[in-house]
Amino acid sequence: MEIVHISAECYPIAKAGGLGDVVGALPKYQQQLGHLAKVVMPMYRSKYLYNHEWDLVHESGTYLGNTWFRYAVIKEKTNELGFDLFLVDINGLLDREKVYGYDDDTERFTAFQIAVVHWLSTWKHRPDVVHVHDHHTGLIPFMMKYCYAYQTLRSIKTVFTIHNGQYQGWMGWNKSHYLPSFDNWKSGMLDWKGTINPLAAAVKCADHVTTVSQSYMDELRYNANGLEDLFEFEKGKCIGILNGIDTEVWDPETDPLLPYNYGISDVHEGKMLNKKSACTHFGLDADKPLFIFIGRLVGEKAAEILAPSIAASIEEFQDELNFIVLGSGDPQLEDELQYLQQQFPNQMSCYIGYNEQLAHQLYAAADFLLMPSRIEPCGLNQMYALRYGTVPMVRNTGGLRDTVVDISAPNFTGFGLLFDNPTVEDLTHAIHRAAGWYFEQPEILLEARKKMMEIDHSWTKSAAEYIDLYQLAAI
Ligand code: ADP
């Protein structure tokens, strides 16, 4: 089959979170299963762009509302990522350093989607599936079905994957003229409660909808930032397919970003060496258990309970614990964590910002990963932690529920720590449990590490599930 993935992010070109990881890996594994997978994304001013060579494959122009814009499509020459990578260049709109966060994001991503559909309509053949990801590409199934200019794309099957249903790309109806002219009788397909809602439009118009875990799919029917009724109504075409991880990029035995590589047989020694290296760098003591948090400092991740829980745990354990936080987001939370670091410089450290290399090093160095998320569609961090032998301590929600089994589970099947609420009480209690385990039952920790590292979260199974879904769509 020929599959065209369209996304705002794709690792290693541009990544702001899990979406980038997934779009950078899934097509590679689909190729390995014998299919032709392509990725189309905006041309940002990324390092990757300047460090690679490109062929110009298409140049044309079209309209965003009344504004004419030119666009170009370039393709990476060597296919080094294991799939065809296409970047769409729209001068002045997409060629920025950051992926998101500009006042004109609506115009940027609407123009991107129009350019992609315009380009697809010039192809001499039709791909089997157009697979769009999150709201930034959510208008594409609508345009392919109902815009007069793109009727030739109507028969192509579309799949929409929700990586995060909180952000929906809302835009006022005063911007409806941005879209190429469409059948007005179908405007209800764009609408949710009086605004154009690209995420809702994709759920309504795509042939199939997936989320990145089954538990998250179930949760969306009662917690979907206003779209609960829509998910209840459309449940027949929605399924959850758990994300995999790229086990080539995330492999402690070969990861070039680690100071020390290790495998299951030397996990204890290997992790200790990485821990010493990280603790020396951050001024912490490697003989104490190390808890880390990596991620966006936002409410979705329950980041506001981190500082108080860390402070309470440090006090309870009389300086016997270490914490490192890597993340950025809400400025007030960033300040709180930096203040905590000043208060407890020998127990707590933080790095405010985004640092891919440090993330790899911390997964390898840590004993425990904290993930108290309020909402977690799949969550990749806990799967990276498992692969690196780091015990995930997660809230019982979404993809976390589908991937972590509490240590207390019957028949010694457990390996992580689960708690129910995103509250200071629950998180400190979980830290209390973990510390007790570290100090009193180190042999259980070693067993759990080995068990976790043996779990197969590679993409092979999930990539095949997507292919089954495409085949179902084709019937
Ligand atoms: P989300 O997409 O909701 O942010 P996921 O768990 O799906 O969360 O994916 C997060 C990805 O982003 C992981 O690869 C994680 O390691 C990475 N990440 C998040 N914040 C940072 C950061 N500050 N520095 C480095 N990597 C980060």
Termini, distance in Å? 13 Å
Cα radius of gyration in angstroms: 23 Å
Which structural class do you get from the secondary structure elements?
A: alpha/beta
Summed over residues and divided by their number, the pLDDT gives a mean of: 96
Per DSSP E runs of 2 or more residues, the count of β-strands stands at 17
Largest sheet: 9 strands, mixed
User: Could you say what the CATH topology of the largest domain is called?
Assistant: Rossmann fold
What kind of assembly state do the chains in view correspond to? single chain
The CATH architecture of the largest domain: 3-Layer(aba) Sandwich
Question: How many distinct helices?
Answer: 16
pLDDT < 50 runs, ≥5 residues: none
Strand content bin:
15-25%
Strand order of the largest sheet: 3-4-5-2-1-6-7-10-11
Number of domains as seen in the coordinates: 2
Spatial shape: elongated
Helix content class? 25-40%
**Ligand catalogue:** adenosine-5'-diphosphate
Q: Which CATH class of the largest domain is shown?
A: Alpha Beta
Describe this structure in words.
The chain folds into two domains: 2-244 and 459-474, Rossmann fold (3-Layer(aba) Sandwich), CATH 3.40.50; 267-453, 3-Layer(aba) Sandwich (Rossmann fold), CATH 3.40.50.2000. The protein contains 16 helices and 17 strands. It has helices at residues 18-32, 47-51, 105-120, 140-146, 198-205, 214-220, 228-233, 267-282, 306-316, 331-343, 356-365, 381-387, 398-403, 424-440, 442-454, 459-474; strands at residues 2-6, 36-42, 54-64, 67-76, 84-89, 129-133, 157-162, 191-192, 195-196, 208-211, 238-240, 290-297, 322-329, 348-352, 368-371, 391-395, 417-419. Helix 4 packs across helix 5 (198-205). The structure holds adenosine-5'-diphosphate.
